[in-house]
Amino acid sequence: MTSRNKNLDVLGNPRNFLEEIIEDDIKSGKHDGRVLTRFPPEPNGYLHIGHAKSICLNFGLALKYGGKTNLRFDDTNPTKEDVEYVDSIKEDVRWLGFEWDQELYASDYFEQLYLWADKLIEMDLAYVDDQTHEEIRLNRGTVTQPGKESPFRNRSLNENLDLFRRMRTGEFPDGSRVLRAKIDMGHPNMLMRDPILYRIIHAHHHRTGDNWCIYPMYDYAHGQSDSIEQITHSICTLEFDVHRPLYDWFIEKLEIFPSHQYEFARLNMTYTVMSKRKLLQLVQEKMVMGWDDPRMPTICGLRRRGYTPEAIRFFADKVGVAKRDNVIDLSLLEFCLREDLNKRAERRMAVLKPLKVIITNYPEGQSELLEAINNPEDELAGKRNIPFSRELFIEQDDFMENPPKKFFRLAPGQEVRLRYAYFIKCNEVVKDHQGNVIELHCTYDPASKGGTSPDGRKVQGTIHWVSAQHAAKAEIRLFDRLFSNEDPDDVPEGADWKDFVNPNSLIVTQGYLEPSLAQAKPLDKFQFERLGYFSVDYDSTPQRLVFNRTATLKDTWAKIAGQ
RNA sequence: UGACCUAUGGUGUAAUGGCAGCACAGCAGAUUUUGGUUCUGUUAGUCUAGGUUCGAGUCCUGGUAGGUCAACCA
What we know:
Elements: H1 17-28, E1 36-39, H2 49-64, E2 68-73, H3 83-96, E3 103-105, H4 110-122, E4 126-129, H5 133-139, H6 157-168, E5 178-181, E6 196-200, E7 214-216, H7 218-229, E8 233-237, H8 244-254, E9 260-264, H9 276-284, H10 299-305, H11 309-319, H12 330-344, E10 346-348, E11 350-351, E12 354-359, E13 367-373, E14 383-389, E15 391-395, E16 415-418, E17 423-431, E18 437-444, E19 462-463, E20 465-467, E21 472-479, E22 506-513, E23 525-528, E24 532-536, E25 546-551, H13 556-562
Parallel strand pairs: 1-2, 2-3, 8-9, 10-23, 12-18, 16-19, 21-25
Antiparallel strand pairs: 4-5, 5-6, 6-7, 11-22, 12-15, 13-14, 15-20, 16-17, 17-18, 21-22, 23-24, 24-25
Helix pairs in contact: 2-11, 7-8, 11-12
This protein binds one RNA strand through α5, β6, α7, α12 and β19.
């Protein structure tokens, strides 16, 4: 049966539009079939899941077509940038599993960019403008009205050259003059109305120090940087689409390597803010623990939460690439995570809300080790032994005094299996003065050791447990979504996006774990049966274990109980 | 109301003039020592009006809706 989808790559997967472009370019011999992409972050914040999509795209495309990818820092604005961000970006890209060809900085090109600006002046394609910030803004016009030409637009070549040189040598204060391209103040595309090329900023740059006091604007630096590196496919997000004519204009006038820009739709996700500005605000106003707060959509936050690079790469692949605006359902990210974790996370038993169970017919002071499978999805994960004794903890949710019909867990008179241990039956419910259940007295069936009864008797439910006397204790952090509304960027009139920060997004509790967990190492991942996937936090030590809940399990019981 | 971009189930993404498919989510069932996993089945879609064509999700025209652009940010 032949596939109806004829647009397939060599592996039989459908191609996205960028893959089509690249394959066509290779076929037509453009750039001698060479593929060189770049990932160009500005070091002014931490990378987030949206950047992960771009990283996977740029590196993935190069990998697929035998090309390479440069990591280039777009560091043209010293007032916003910092080495802290450079370091974190490099760490995150590596962690995601990608290796860049060259590590470069737009600031490496400042001298070349300056020379090209000189050249544009000589070609009568650039001029120094003395208008104030406000005048420039006003004279740019609006989207429906053309702009007005600057009175300084027709300065002499020599005056422009002289002024631009003196801008560089630091003769003028910040904001006093700019260098602009001479294009068309009436252009329907606002970006073509004599865009600013250079502005004066007397600030210390994290790499060039105090060598410069004029800095190129994004539009002037980006395309030329691509060109210098001979980038074949410069892939960016949709909002740069209107910049492309300007990108091409510089390349054409300067007669330099013809890099080409392609745009794709950036990633949006439900219950998530992706704006660096807002994420920075969350950090600065201490609404989260930091950039790596496990609730943050940053790469380091996801890592700390317990996400794996594989899951994120899988996600980037699943969301696809297109040009239409999109909002990805958070459940897709969660699916991708569980898909990976289910295969790799060893199972353990842990109790978060303990309820004491006393096995009245189990000898006092006795204990034994019971064998448990580490991961039913992976035979190689082996087995372990868990201590069992007379006093246990089970989950409070696993007991109901007056159970509804489809409740398969422990209830008075009802028999359940303690996973990998024994069948037990509840005989007595002990309550405190308020009537809260505080203890259960049960009997076990010694013949059901391991969890099966020789008489073939079946039980409906299997619950997890831990021996009270042997249990390790740990701080457990449960996370809910950071925002309580689906689209935190779309707030109602009079409201602020911060109103939707979920006050219950972090719950800290104590857990009782099976003893083997006391030796867990930072970032180790486990599935606590029925409770979800958990990852050991960074600052964990054997003395102070902290587990972050990485993901919940699909819970069909919640639906049954809700009815 | 200028230029540009976009429009396929609830969500995302394919179909390159020829049977509208896949994934997530949902629903139903089977298996299960995790109400997990796995497996099976299933609900649901081409923004609109014209045109071209034997044939249009696809090409053309108009409309509608959404997005981007008026930082000396990137």
